[in-house]
Amino acid sequence: MRQLSQCLMVVALLAEAGCTTLNATDVATNPPLQTLYDTRLIDAATAAAQTLPALTPQLASADVVVIGEYHGHPAAHLLQSQVQQALYQARPNQVLTLEQFAIDRQPALDLYLQGETGEREMMEDAAAWDNYRASYRPLVEFAIANGLPVVAANAPANVVRCVGRLGPGYLDSLPAEVRDTLPEQPFVGSDAYRDKFLSAMGEGRHGAGDQGRLMNSYQAQLLRDNTMASRILLAHQQHPGAQIIHLTGTFHSESHLGTIEALQHRAPELSIAVLSPVHTNSDGEFPDIETHRHKGDVLYLLRPLPVPFKDPERQIQHFQQQFAGAPAVDCTPAR
């Protein structure tokens, strides 16, 4: 009854506030986005600009809402927090699932959710991403304040790296207690997703000897997607009637590929709404929406971040230093 009354209240507010809609031609003539916090929501079905209140009933009806992101973009993370709160008001039975924590770190995350550790302790023990405080803290704290579950959904980082090095057969060497935490079907994918991944990795720039490594990298990507899909489905099963809010990099969900198709493979009956980011140009001016409508059920426009490197040599040095500082991973198969 409480949920029904809240939904009716939202509908009443929407009727009073109305919404701003624009056709595909008008979108391009809108005032440009001014700051790196600004977004503009587009209903992909109609190519019409919408407000979040206007879209909330549509999103609230989905079993799973997946918000793709450009990692570290302030507009993406601000919108995620706003969507989380808006959907909670309409449907307070909610679970937050996150690509940003791996499944083997769930115990450390749980200790923090239960108030038994501090934030810094959680960040260290759960291997939180470097941008946790700026990007994900508001969503986790909102969940804690409202007694909502938070689920670590990504595959363990060391397992992903070893699959990327040795291929999918590496999973067969894992101890049973580790392998049992991973999905039974860890490499569900599609030709469309494979082609997109290989294109993004610059397949044409690699020699024949690198093709095996590229395919191993793709299998590692599928392991992430399928682990997230299995955790979303498990959260749905463990919390009947709850709406799942899942945060992930947009590559994992864009065009309903990756995690989305892995989830649909497991549970085709679930209704899934995907929000996908689309860059404006550097002046904040809107792109041609028609070329992006396939990317999600709702698009959100945001300004691109500053270019990190203009000197290619410095970019190479930066990544070399990052890889050099990464912890060593032993991929020797267990005997």
From TrEMBL:
Alphabetic keyword roster: Signal
SUPFAM superfamilies named among the record's database cross-references: EreA/ChaN-like (SSF159501)
Stated name of the protein: Uncharacterized iron-regulated protein
Signal peptide per UniProt: 1-24
Domain of life from the UniProt record: Bacteria
Pfam families (alphabetical): Cofac_haem_bdg (PF04187)
InterPro entries listed in its UniProt record: Cofac_haem-bd_dom (IPR007314)
Domain Haem-binding uptake Tiki superfamily ChaN: 57-262
Gene3D superfamilies: 3.40.50.11550
